[in-house]
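Support request, please re-run this one:
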Amino acid sequence: MLKSRPRAVNAPSSAPRAVGAGPSRPDTRRFVRTWGVLVLLLALSFSLAYWATRPSPDREAGRGALATARQLEGFGTHVAASPQLAGALDLVSRDLKAIPGLEVERQRASGSYRFHDRAVDYGVENVIARQQGDTDDALLVNVHVDSAMEGPGAADDGINVGAVLQAARQLAGQDHHRTVIYLFNGGEEVGLTGADAFTKHPWASHVRWFLNLEAVGSGGLPILFQAGKDDGGLVDLAGDTARPYGSVLGQWLFQAGLINSDTDSRVWRARGWSGLDYALFEDGYRYHTPDDRVAGIGSGSAQAVTDLTVRFASDVTGSADLSDRKPAPYYFDVLSRWWVTLDPLLTKAGMLALLLALAGLTWRACRVWDIRPGRVAATAGAALLGLPAAVLTGIVVGVAQSLAGPHAWFAHPWLVYLVTLPLIVLGALAPQLLLERRRRRRTPVGDRRPGARTALLGNTWAVVVLGALTAWFGVGLGYLLWIASALLVVSIGGFLLLPGRWRAVPLLMGTFALFVLIAQFARNLFELAVPMMGRLPTAVPMDAAVAVACALVAVPLALILAPFAVHAGRPPRRSGLALAAYTACGLLVVGLISPYDSAHPKLVSLFQEQTDGQDARIVLEGRDYLTPQKLGIVDQVAHDTGLRVRDGGLAARKVSVPEGTVSFDTAGPTAPVRIAIGANRAELVRVTVTGPGLSVGGRPFEGGEAVVDVVGRFDGHTVTVERSGPVRIQVDQVFLRTGKDADRALAALPDWTMGHARTVVQRTWADRRS
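Re-run finished. Output below.
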């Protein structure tokens, strides 16, 4: 591929073309042929990445899991400690008691747990079952039965509840060396309280390992997205499942704080337990919405979760040697067929070996191909400049898209693949293309092979250097660079050692393999990031952030494409005009299409605020830059319902809810404040205190704000806050019950939105000197 066709020996040399002259017809054919093959390979790679991860059809167990999820959906929104959740736990308990050999207990527990930047005082219920093994050492299989306040939670986590019930039936007929404990916890969505409550149960003392099943979407295969730092043995077992599927990408996003969420595993890893987190993540548009229903769950997902649970639990509770903990490796799958793990220490050593091997190959190649080392170094420098160039291009493209039509990618994620990503790949290639253009202008027309081979050497150096840096600093996302480093070094060796046209075979095969890995990485990244970033509460459009995220894909892709781009030669005439037209058309499409539709709706939250001393009003909030006010939703709802617009919201009649009385007591301006909340039926009570030197239960809060959530303490509860000066306190009692005005407003929302409503009763108190 990198070898140009030799001219006939007796043919007269052609006269050099004038500087600035366009490419000849053979050059044009080379350009079109090279890029045509590359685009075809990329299209094939992305198709493989999609179809290889389609679940097998649901069998009997999958259909049974869906039936359970449908029953749970029938309870409606079932938040922690609610009567609806109690009914759901009754259903789970009955099904477990029908399985022979299981001990089933209903746990009721209360306590306090510090969750990130807030404390949670809770009273929750769990259903726990145990299948005793030959030893007490136990694997905990965890799912949560409670739903978020926004919807019925069929995928998060109803489908997993059904799958674990099916898995428990299958595992009950097997003998186990170790014990299996199933936790159907009733408090994940409110600060991981169900997990904390379980740690108080006597069976918790025997748990050594756990499998946590979650969902941030409603389809596809369950993906391994998080493991503990010493969970290498369990990560290896993940590769023994029928469809190994996972990526260190999810773990990196969690650890970097880029995913604004958490799982029950936080509680258990703090206790020293080893475990893995799996989640369904495709079609994240339904996550924590009223549309999280069984009808939206992808075909085969329930069966896939069931099969995963049975296989993993059988391995852990069987004869697997898990006595010694070892560091977790970097991990990823290849087309959900092969499982690859890379030991961090061996990865560092391997990258060092590749650096030495590349140095030797470069010395040999410069002698054989008559290439100056300085040209290789300059090409490598231009390739490394592609990283900041890609980021800068992403910012420019993102800003342009936000000006043309912000958020269009949310409802149309194909825009990321067909508009944003190609432009950023071109931006990453730009430093090298400009360098090659400068060289062509300064060099007489001649053999193109040194230029393409120089690009291969220079880009391999860039890949290996970046790979070595990511390995040294422990950045797991560098696995693409590590694999690319090995394949490119082998490709250079192929060019030096193999005869004739066989020289290009290692490069072509390695390129296709890398395209497949990059396609998988891109699909996992965008499948997760697009729905999530589309609902982040920000004051600016997220278009630039999405575009910059594309650089994670664009940079490795550009480093692989660069040698082929040099081989292809100068583009045909008017290519710059074609690129400008492509960009303009892309921005035109972005500006014309809607950022939301019925399949990718805007989530609108309606809060009926009832603050002491003020008239009630309904506040409409969106989770992204395009607020209901900017989109005209408030005015439209007001027009359709006849409700009056007031202070950016809608005037409403007060709703009677079972709120508790709130009283405040303190002995002085620096003495602790006691907030007493009377008997109530609120789904959530949130106490927010602002002031200096705040602490609750002896644990300080940073930033001058302390937040305490109270869940399931219906008989009344007192929160005591220590402080060092004047404070202001706000107590919000949150109810799912709403009035007729909120219901009318909800029904009047446009069909490209999805809404849910709550009633919030506020009481405030402040020191006189605050």
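The radius of gyration is 30 Å. DSSP finds 21 helices and 22 strands in the chain.
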